[in-house]
Amino acid sequence: MSDVGSDEFDDERGKLGEYDGGRNGAGERHGAGRAVLPNGDVYQGGYESGRRHGQGTYCFKNGARYVGDYYQNMKHGHGTFYYPDGSKYEGLWVEDLRQGHGLYTYPNGDAYEGEWLHHMRHGQGIYNYQETVSKYKGSWVNGKMESAGEYIHSNNRYMGNFVNNNPSGPGKYVFDGCEQHGEYRPTEQDRAEGEWGESGSPAILKWIPKCVTELTLWTGTHTSCAENDRASAEAEN
Predict the structure, then answer these.
(1) Residue 227: in which H helix or E strand, if any?
(2) By three-state DSSP, how is residue 93 classified?
(3) Does this entry carry the keyword Magnesium (predicted)?
(4) Which of 18, 59, 191, 202 has the lowest tally of Cβ within 10 angstroms?
(5) pLDDT of 65-79, one tens digit each?
């Protein structure tokens, strides 16, 4: 659903709707006020020169609600949006868009906390899966897992690069006291939808194990098994 408030009749020129509150010398809504819009939405909060401005609460007729900062009729600053499906976003807004740091809780209990850009997960963030108690921690681009990240389970974690919500190329699985190096390659075997992300992907991938080593530091770049063997030998000497 859209989380932009109605502006269609939210002025005096429409001669519609109800308003109770302060006005400035020009007769514009100014200061604290309450407006009931013709579509059934209700806004209560600050106005400046006829526009929603400052702290306010906007209640949509479908049950959604926004509580937070406004700037020139737009959600701008810090605010919380309660969606009618039970999801909730609490964080920063820029010109009616989720942008900056924020926490989004989904109807199924999943939650994402991190950076947003233009309403999409973008930058560094953590996505927690309620059902499996797993989580993804890493980079996001335009709402998808991209670049360096790690997928964390209760008894192991995968660390590597991601492309379009899927692991891609070299990486490693880290267990208690050891790790398995390998890489994900395209194969003809299909995988279950949603295994690595919120939705299915056309990518068909298979994990190709290469070696098992002691715990090493993941730098985001691939280290071959031979290099790990040499490093272990040097440490012993």
Answers:
(1) helix 225-236
(2) strand
(3) no
(4) 202
(5) 999 999 999 999 999
